[in-house]
Design brief:
The complex is a heterodimer.
Chain A: H1 3-12, E1 31-35, E2 41-45, E3 48-51, E4 54-57, E5 68-71, E6 77-81, H2 89-102, E7 108-117, E8 120-127, E9 130-136, E10 143-146, E11 150-154, E12 160-163, H3 171-178
Antiparallel strand pairs in A: 1-2, 2-3, 4-5, 5-6, 7-8, 8-9, 10-11, 11-12
Chain B: E1 18-24, E2 30-37, E3 41-45, E4 51-56, E5 60-67, E6 71-78, E7 84-91, H1 95-109, H2 146-155, H3 161-193, H4 201-248, H5 251-255, H6 259-301, H7 303-350, H8 352-357, H9 361-413, H10 419-461, E8 482-489, E9 498-505, E10 510-514, H11 521-528, E11 536-541, E12 544-545, H12 551-556, E13 558-562, E14 570-571, H13 572-576, H14 585-594, H15 598-602, E15 611-612, H16 621-635, E16 639-643, H17 651-665, E17 669-673, E18 685-690, E19 693-698, H18 700-706, H19 709-727
Parallel strand pairs in B: 10-17, 10-18, 13-16, 16-17
Antiparallel strand pairs in B: 1-2, 2-3, 3-4, 5-6, 6-7, 8-9, 8-11, 11-12, 14-15, 18-19
Helix pairs in contact in B: 2-10, 3-4, 3-6, 3-10, 4-6, 4-10, 6-7, 6-10, 7-9, 7-10, 9-10, 14-16, 16-17, 18-19
Classes of the chains: A alpha+beta, B alpha+beta.
C-alpha cells in the first residue's frame, strides 16, 4: 500500500480504532481548529469534534511551530500535523494562539539592562508577553546557546525567555548582552 | 503568589478563604491577576480590581490543574455546562501555590474541611528580596549576605588561632623588613658613594643589605608555609562538614538534582576556596599592609615628591578596573571551553561501547577536535591578552618612575633632596605599584571565593527534611507490624504518586506489590524505608508513627535488595559485611551459603578476598545480586524489601536467587516488587496498585478469581511469554 492510500484508509478509521503503533499524519484539509466556549482548543478532525484537544510540539526548539501532535482530553493521540502553514487562516490563527498558551516561552524583543550583582546577574528584558526580570546565579548553567544566534535564558525560579536572534536585536540590547557573551 | 505587594480591593461578600496572585492573562501575556476563593464562589480580578469572571462553587463538578510548558491553568468542569473552562492561567513558578488552591477548591466541592497549607505549600520568600525560595533550601541564592559568608569562612580559622596569629606577626615583621633595603641604599649613596668616603662603612652596609634579604627570604618561606598549613587544614574541615551534610540530606534533595554535579561542585568550589584560604588571606593582608607602610615611609621622607607619585596612581587603578572585567570574561570563557571539553571526553568514554558498536569513532574524534580547537582559541586569546596587559602595567608604573626621576632629579640638582632619597623613592614606587596592579584582581578573587563558599554553605545549610524528632522513640526490636493510614505522597507536591493508601501488614507477612510502572510501587517502599515522609496520613510501625522512630533503629532493621546492586570498592567479604562490619568471617560464609553465593565465590582465585567495585573483578548481574542477598542475610532485618531483585536475570540464575530469597524471607515482614508475576506466587497477599491507588488486595488465587486488574496483568504476561517462547 502506498503512502497516500494508507493515509486515506486511516482517515476513514476513527482515532480509537487505529493501530496505536502507527503514526497518523493529519492532512491539513481535514483539520479545523477553533476556540471552544471555555477558552479551550477545539478541533474538528475528519469530521469528528474534539473539545479540549491538546497540541504539543515534537521539536519545540529545532522546529518550533511545526511537527505538532494533537491529542484528545484522554491523551489519545489523534495525529501529527507536519506543517500548519497550509491550514486555513482562521484555524492557523487559533493554532498559533494555542501554542502561545501551551508554551509559555517569552521571546525577548529588547534587553533593557543586564546587571551584575555580587554573586548573580539580573536581566531586565521586554518580551512579546510583557516586561520580565530574570535573575540568574551564573551564566554557564542558565544561559544556553542554540547555534550562534539563539539563546535561552532560565532563571533561578525556572522562568525562561528566548532570544531568537541576537543579530536582530537593537544596538542597545546588543551592547547589554555583550556584557555576558 | 500570596503577595504582600499592594493588591486591589475586591468586592467580595465576606473574608476570602484564599487569594492567589497569578501572572498571566488569557492570552498568556504577563500581567497581574487575582484569584479569590470564597466559600461560595471563585472570582478572577484584574489589576484594577475589576471582575473578569466568576463561578459558583455549587456549579462545579471537578477542578484540575493542567500543566503546560512553562505554565499551567486551572480547568473547571461544570455540572450542567457541556464544556470545560480554563479559568486562570499562571507561569510555572506559581504552580505549587495553585496546586494548593486546587486542593482548597476540591475540598469546597466535596464539602470537606479546608486543608491546612503545609510547610511545603507555603511560598517561602526570602526576607530580603522577597523572591520565592527554591525547594529544599532556606538560603536565597541571590542575596546571600557576603559579610556573613566571610564571617563564617573566617570562623573556620578559630581552631588555628595561634598559628594564624603567629603568621600575622611574621607578616608584620616581613613587611617591616621589606621596607628597610631601599633605605639602606639611600644611606649607601648619601653617606658612602656621594662623599666618596673610603671608610669600611660600605662593606658593613652591603652586609646589612644581604642580611635583610636573607631575613626576607626566611619570612617569605615561613609565611608561605603557614598559609598552606592552616589553609589546607581549614579546607579539610570545610570538606568534612560538606560531606557530612551531604550524607545527612534526604533522598529528595538528591532526586531534585544531578548527583554528578555534587562531585564537581564540592571539588571545584573547594579548590577556589582553598586558593583564597591559603594564599588569599595572607596576600591581601600582606599587600594592604605594604601599601600603607610604603605610603607612610614615602610621605615621611619627602611629602612633596610622594604627592607627585600619587598622580599616576589613580591611572593605574582606573586601568585595572577597566581591564579586569574583560580579563575575567576571557577567563570565564576559557573555563567554559575547558568544561565543555571535559564533558565531551567523559561522555564518549562512558559510552565507549555504544561509540564502537555504531562505528562512530570518527564523529567523536571530530567533536573532540572542534571543542579542542575552541579551547586552543580561548587559551590563545586569554593568555595573549594577559601578555599584553602585563607590559601595559609596567609601562604605567614606568611613567610614575619617570615623573619621579624628572621632578626628583630636579630637586637633587637644586640640592633640596639627596640622591639617595631619590633612588630610595624609585625603589619604594616599584614596591607600591605591584600590589596596586593586583588589587582589583584580589577583589575578583575574593568574590569568587565567596561565591564558592556560599555554594558550599548552601549544601551545609540545606534543611534535612526527614530529620529525627527531638523525642524520637528507640525501637531496638521491631516486630514488623506495619500500617498505612490514609497515606498520600508526591515527589512534586501537585502530582501525588500514591493517594490515600490504607493497609495493615502483619509481622512476618510477605506482600507482593504489583502494578504498571509508575503505579507507585517503589514510592510505597521509599516511604516505608523513610527516605521520604508522607505529605498526608501516617505510617505506623508496631503502632508507633514512623516519623517518631529513631532512624538508626529503623535502618538497622530494614534490609533492601534492589534491582541494581551497588558493590563498593573492596573485597567480596567487605561488601557482604557492609552493614555489619563486626560480623565474623564464618558468619560471612554462612550468609553467602544461604544466598547461593558461596559456590561461585569459592570458584574465584582470591575467594572472599576478591576485589570488586570500580577497580576490581567484574561480576555478572546474578552474582552481584547474590552478594547483595548475602548482605541482607547478614544484616538480618526484621523488614525486608525486595525491589525487582530478580529482574533482568536468566531463568536458571533467577531460580537460584528465588531459592535464596525463599530462605531469606522466612519470618520477616517482606515487601517484594516484581514485574514477573510468577515470582510473587508465594506471597501471602498481593497489593495491586493502579495510578497511585490500591486497586485490589488478596492472595494470588483470590485475585485471579476476581478477574480484575491482576487477572488482566497475568493474562498479558502469559501472552508475552508465549511470544518469547516462539522467539526463543
Amino acid at each position: 500500500m502506498n503512502r497516500r492510500e494508507n493515509d486515506s484508509a486511516q482517515a476513514m478509521t476513527p482515532a480509537h480504532q487505529r493501530d496505536p503503533w502507527e503514526l497518523y499524519e493529519i492532512v491539513p484539509e481535514a483539520l479545523v481548529c477553533r476556540r471552544g466556549p471555555g477558552r479551550l482548543l477545539e478541533i474538528v478532525l475528519d469530521g469528528q469534534v474534539y473539545p479540549g484537544a491538546t497540541v504539543t510540539q515534537a521539536f519545540p526548539r529545532s522546529a518550533p511551530g511545526r511537527y505538532l501532535i494533537f491529542a484528545d482530553t484522554t491523551d489519545n493521540e489523534l495525529g501529527l500535523l507536519h506543517d500548519p502553514t497550509t491550514l486555513d487562516p482562521a484555524s492557523r490563527e487559533v493554532l498559533d494562539a494555542e501554542l502561545r498558551l501551551r508554551y509559555v516561552m517569552p521571546i525577548v524583543t529588547k534587553i533593557e539592562r543586564v546587571r551584575q550583582n555580587p554573586g548573580s546577574w539580573t536581566f531586565d528584558v521586554i518580551t512579546d508577553r510583557g516586561p520580565l526580570r530574570l535573575s540568574v546565579r551564573n551564566l554557564h548553567e542558565h544561559l544556553e546557546g542554540l547555534g550562534s544566534d539563539r539563546l535561552i535564558l532560565t532563571d533561578v525560579d525556572e522562568r525562561t525567555a528566548e532570544i531568537s536572534s541576537i543579530q536582530a536585536l537593537d544596538s542597545h540590547s546588543k551592547r547589554e548582552l555583550a556584557k555576558v557573551l | 503568589m500570596v503577595s504582600l505587594k499592594s493588591r486591589p480591593k475586591f468586592s467580595s461578600s465576606g473574608p476570602p478563604i484564599l487569594t492567589l496572585e497569578s501572572d498571566l492573562d488569557d492570552g498568556a501575556n504577563f500581567c497581574r491577576r487575582w484569584l479569590v476563593i470564597d466559600p461560595e464562589r471563585m472570582t478572577l480580578y484584574d489589576e484594577q480590581g475589576a471582575v473578569i469572571r466568576q463561578s459558583e462553587v455549587s456549579r462545579l463538578k471537578a477542578v484540575r490543574l493542567e500543566q503546560d510548558f512553562g505554565g499551567g491553568h486551572l480547568l473547571f468542569t461544570y455540572q450542567s455546562e457541556p464544556f470545560d473552562e480554563a479559568f486562570v492561567r499562571f507561569s510555572a513558578p506559581l504552580a505549587p501555590q495553585f496546586a494548593y488552591g486546587l486542593s482548597v477548591l476540591q475540598a469546597l466541592i466535596d464539602q470537606q474541611p479546608i486543608p491546612e497549607m503545609s510547610v511545603r505549600d507555603q511560598p517561602r520568600a526570602c526576607s530580603r528580596c522577597g523572591r520565592t525560595l527554591p525547594d529544599g533550601t532556606d538560603v536565597c541564592p541571590l542575596c546571600v549576605d557576603k559579610k556573613k559568608v566571610m564571617g563564617r569562612l573566617l570562623g573556620y580559622i578559630r581552631p588555628y588561632r595561634l598559628p594564624v596569629i603567629f603568621a600575622m606577626v611574621v607578616l608584620l615583621i616581613g613587611t617591616g623588613v621589606q621596607l628597610i633595603p631601599p633605605y639602606i641604599t639611600k644611606i649607601i649613596i648619601d653617606r658612602v658613594l656621594e662623599p666618596k668616603a673610603f671608610s669600611s662603612d660600605l662593606l658593613s652596609l652591603v652586609a646589612l643589605l644581604f642580611a635583610m634579604n636573607v631575613i626576607q627570604l626566611g619570612m617569605q618561606a615561613i609565611r608561605g608555609y603557614l598559609g598552606v598549613w592552616f589553609g589546607s587544614r581549614m579546607m579539610g574541615d570545610i570538606r568534612r562538614n560538606t560531606y557530612n551534610a551531604l550524607m545527612a540530606l534526604s533522598l529528595r534533595y538528591f532526586d531534585q538534582r544531578q548527583v554528578s554535579q555534587f562531585i564537581g561542585r564540592v571539588n571545584s568550589d573547594a579548590v577556589s576556596m582553598q586558593q583564597f584560604m591559603t594564599d588569599g588571606i595572607v596576600m591581601i593582608t600582606g599587600q594592604s599592609l605594604l601599601i600603607v607602610s610604603v605610603l607612610a615611609v614615602m610621605l615621611a621622607m619627602d611629602w612633596q615628591l610622594a604627592l607627585i607619585t600619587f598622580v599616576t596612581m589613580p591611572l593605574i587603578v582606573l586601568v585595572s578596573v577597566v581591564v579586569w572585567p574583560y580579563v575575567r570574561q576571557r577567563w570565564y570563557r576559557q573555563w567554559r571551553s575547558m568544561m565543555r571539553l571535559n564533558i565531551l571526553v567523559g561522555d564518549s568514554l562512558q559510552g565507549i561501547r555504544v561509540v564502537k558498536a555504531f562505528g562512530q569513532e570518527p564523529t567523536e574524534r571530530e567533536r573532540y577536535h572542534g571543542a579542542n580547537q575552541d579551547l586552543v582559541l580561548q587559551n590563545v586569546r586569554t593568555d595573549g591578552m594577559w601578555q599584553g596587559i602585563f607590559p601595559l602595567f609596567s609601562f604605567l608604573s614606568g611613567i610614575g618612575g619617570l615623573l619621579i626621576w624628572y621632578f626628583g632629579g630636579e630637586q637633587v640638582l637644586h640640592n633640596r633632596i639627596s640622591l639617595g632619597t631619590l633612588v630610595a623613592f624609585t625603589a619604594y614606587i616599584a614596591m607600591l605599584l605591584g600590589p596596586l596592579q593586583w588589587f582589583s584582581q584580589l577583589i575578583n578573587w575574593v568574590t569568587n571565593a565567596m561565591a564558592a563558599a556560599d555554594r558550599i554553605f548552601e549544601i551545609i545549610d540545606a534543611p534535612v527534611d526527614v530529620d529525627d524528632v527531638a523525642d524520637a522513640v528507640a525501637m531496638p526490636h521491631i516486630h514488623g507490624h506495619i500500617q498505612f493510614d490514609q497515606v498520600s505522597f508526591g515527589y512534586e507536591r501537585h502530582r501525588p504518586a500514591v493517594k490515600a493508601i490504607n493497609m495493615d501488614i502483619q509481622p512476618g507477612e510477605m506482600i507482593g506489590l504489583v502494578g504498571h510502572s509508575g503505579a507507585g510501587k517503589s514510592t510505597l517502599i521509599n516511604l516505608l524505608a523513610r527516605f521520604y515522609d508522607p505529605d498526608e496520613g501516617t505510617i505506623y510501625l508496631d503502632g508507633v508513627d514512623l516519623r517518631r522512630v529513631q532512624q538508626s533503629d529503623l535502618h538497622r532493621q530494614v534490609g533492601v535488595v534492589l534491582q541494581e546492586t551497588f558493590l563498593f570498592d573492596g573485597t567480596v567479604a567487605d561488601n557482604i559485611r557492609y552493614a555489619n562490619p563486626d560480623a565474623t568471617l564464618v558468619d560471612v560464609i554462612r550468609a553467602a551459603k544461604i544466598a547461593n553465593a558461596h559456590g561461585f565465590i569459592m570458584g574465584l582465585k582470591d575467594g572472599y578476598d576478591t576485589q570488586v567495585g570500580e577497580r576490581g573483578h567484574r561480576m555478572s548481574g546474578g552474582e552481584k545480586q547474590r552478594v547483595a542477598i548475602a548482605r541482607a542475610v547478614l544484616h538480618d532485618p526484621r523488614i525486608l524489601i525486595l525491589d525487582e531483585a530478580t529482574a533482568s536475570l536468566d531463568t536458571e540464575t533467577e531460580r537460584q536467587i528465588q531459592e535464596a530469597l525463599a530462605r531469606l524471607v522466612q519470618g520477616r515482614t517482606t515487601f517484594a516488587i516484581a514485574h514477573r508475576l510468577s515470582t510473587l506466587r508465594h506471597a501471602d497477599r498481593l497489593i495491586v496498585l493502579d495510578h497511585g491507588l490500591i486497586a485490589e488486595m488478596g492472595s494470588h488465587e483470590e485475585l485471579l478469581r476476581n478477574r480484575g486488574v491482576y487477572h488482566r496483568l497475568v493474562q498479558a504476561q502469559r501472552e508475552l511469554s508465549k511470544i518469547r517462547g516462539v522467539e526463543g
